[in-house]
Specification:
mainly alpha; 243 residues
C-alpha cells in the first residue's frame, strides 16, 4: 500500500503533480483570454492576485505551525519572495515586478517542478501548499505573457537583475549570520539538506558564485527568443502582380 505521507521525486506522483499544475495554469489562462472586455479580465487578474497573496500567507503559517526555524522557516527562499511579488505584479502592473516574475518564474521557479525539494505527500497540507505556491508564481508569469501581452526586452533584464541583486543583498548577510541556505547560496551546517543539483556545484563559497552565474545565464536564455524576434526582419509578401 502506498504511503501518502511521503513524496519522492521522479515517480508517478511527481508526474501527476506537474501535469495537474500545468493544467491549472492553462485553464486560468484560457479564462483570462476568454474574458469579455477589460473589466472582466481585470476581475480575473485581481482574483488570481488575491488568491496568490492568501495562499502565500497560508503556506507560511502551515510551514511554521510548530514554531519558526530561522534556518529554514523565514520566507526568504527566492520562491517565497516570488510568491509575494508575482500576485503584486498582476495587481499593480509595475514593470519592475513583472520583469522579476518573468525571469524568476520561467527560469528559477520551474526548477521546483523539475527537482522538487518536497518530502511530504498528499496526506500532508504542505504537499498542496508547495505545488500551489509554485503554480501561482509560474501561472502569473504565463498569464502576463499570454493574456496581458508582456514582452521582455533588455531593460527588463536589467530590472530583473536589479531586483535579484536586492534579494541577494538581503539573503547573503542573513545566511552568514544564521548559517542558513536561503537562495541556496549559503553554507548550512552538516545535517541540513542541500538539494542534490546544488550540492554538485561544489563546496561553499564556490557554489554560491556558480548558482548566481547559472541564474544570470538562465535569464539571458529566457530573453533570447524575444531579442531574436525583435531583430528578425519583417518580410512583406509580394503582390500577385509582381514579377
Amino acid at each position: 500500500m502506498r504511503d501518502w505521507s511521503v513524496f519522492a521525486p521522479y515517480g508517478a506522483l511527481h508526474l501527476a503533480s506537474v501535469i495537474g499544475c500545468l493544467g491549472l495554469i492553462a485553464a486560468v489562462v484560457r479564462i483570462g483570454r476568454s474574458a469579455g472586455g477589460k473589466n472582466a479580465e481585470r476581475l480575473v487578474r485581481r482574483s488570481i492576485a488575491v488568491f496568490g497573496l492568501a495562499e502565500w500567507a497560508i503556506y507560511n503559517v502551515v510551514w511554521n505551525w510548530r514554531g519558526i526555524d530561522v534556518h529554514e522557516g523565514l520566507p526568504l527562499q527566492l520562491c517565497d519572495v516570488a510568491g509575494l511579488v508575482a500576485p503584486l505584479a498582476l495587481l499593480t502592473l509595475d514593470r519592475r515586478l513583472r520583469a522579476a516574475v518573468y525571469f524568476w518564474g520561467l527560469t528559477l521557479t520551474t526548477q521546483a517542478f523539475i527537482q522538487p525539494t518536497l518530502t511530504r505527500g498528499p496526506a500532508d497540507l504542505l504537499f498542496w501548499c508547495f505545488w500551489i505556491a509554485h503554480t501561482v508564481i509560474l501561472g502569473c508569469a504565463v498569464y502576463d505573457l499570454v493574456v496581458l501581452g508582456f514582452r521582455p526586452g533588455w531593460p527588463d533584464l536589467g530590472r530583473a537583475l536589479a531586483v535579484s541583486a536586492a534579494y541577494l543583498a538581503v539573503v547573503v548577510p542573513v545566511n552568514l549570520l544564521l548559517s542558513s541556505n536561503y537562495g541556496y547560496i549559503g553554507n548550512p551546517p552538516p545535517g541540513r539538506a542541500i538539494p542534490p543539483f546544488v550540492a554538485l556545484l561544489g563546496p561553499w563559497p564556490q557554489r554560491a558564485f556558480v548558482v548566481v552565474a547559472l541564474a544570470v545565464l538562465a535569464f539571458l536564455l529566457a530573453l533570447a527568443p524575444w531579442v531574436v524576434r525583435l531583430r528578425a526582419p519583417s518580410v512583406t509578401p509580394a503582390s500577385p502582380g509582381a514579377t
